[in-house]
Amino acid sequence: MLKKSSMLKKTRVVQNRHRARELAVQLLYSLGIRPDRNARECVDAFISEGGFAFEESAEIKEYLSFLVEGTWEKRFDIDNKMRMVVTGWRPEHMVAVDRAVLRLAIFEGFLTKEVPLAVAISEAVELARAFGTEESGKFVNGVLGKMARDGEKTSGKTSEKTSGNISIEDGKYATDATAAISTDR
Question: In the CATH scheme, what architecture does the domain 74-185 have?
Answer without folding.
Answer: Orthogonal Bundle (1.10)
